Structure formats: C-alpha cells, structure tokens
Task: structure prediction
Amino acid sequence: MTRGPAPKENAQRRNVHPNAQTLPAEPQKGRELPKGLGISTPGAKRFWRTWSTAPQTVAWSETDWAELELTTKLVDGLFLGDLKLAGEIRQRVAKWGATVEDRARLRMTFEKPGDEEPAAAAEAPQGLDMDEELYKLLNDS
Result:
C-alpha cells in the first residue's frame, strides 16, 4: 500500500545537475608508482595503489595524476611521522571523492549493476503481499 498520489505516467526528474557524473563501479587499470618519487613507506604505496585504481581515475587528466603524485609524497611524510600533513591530505582526497559525503557533494555516482535482483526479493514467498506475510509470521509463533 503506497501513500500519496500515483506518479504521472511520463514522470521525469528535472533536478539532475548538469555537472553530475556517473562513473563505472569497477576498479581501473591504474598506473605504476613513479620510482622518482622516492616513496619508502608501505602505507604510501598502498595509498597510491588504492587511488590509481579507483573508479574516479577514468576521468582524470595528467594534472590530476600529478596531484596524486604530490599527495602520495605527503602521505609518505605522514607515515614517517609528520602528523601535521593529515589535514592537507584530507582536503586533497576530498576533491577526488574519497568518502560518500565527498562524492555526494561532487554529484558523483557509480553505475549500478542492472540485472541483479536483491536476495531478499528472491526469497519472498510468491502470491503473498507484505501484510499477509507479516500476519502469517506473527501468528505462527
């Protein structure tokens, strides 16, 4: 049972932002960590690997990759003990969409697989609506 009026047959969302972007959900091929950066900590190497293969990189230009190199150098310094770099790193990765909140602000979404059904919908008994199913569950105990 739904509330409110039924949607119009030709309903359209008109509030789609012109700069919104939908990215592929799967990881990208990525790039090798440049040897010339002199990265020494495993944490910074993991940071590079994570970001260089992130779905966001599908839309990156050379300036974005240069920014990743600089940020990885900062992350290396952070793992070497310079905790003052944490705020700067957080500001930089926010511009790439590091968290759910960052991606929402950037109007960035990932493609959803279209053919898969949720497991809960597959388990629901056929021919019963939700009220009948709930009534049956409550009265069987």
Remarks:
- The helical segments are 42-52, 62-79, 86-94, 100-105, 119-123, 130-140.
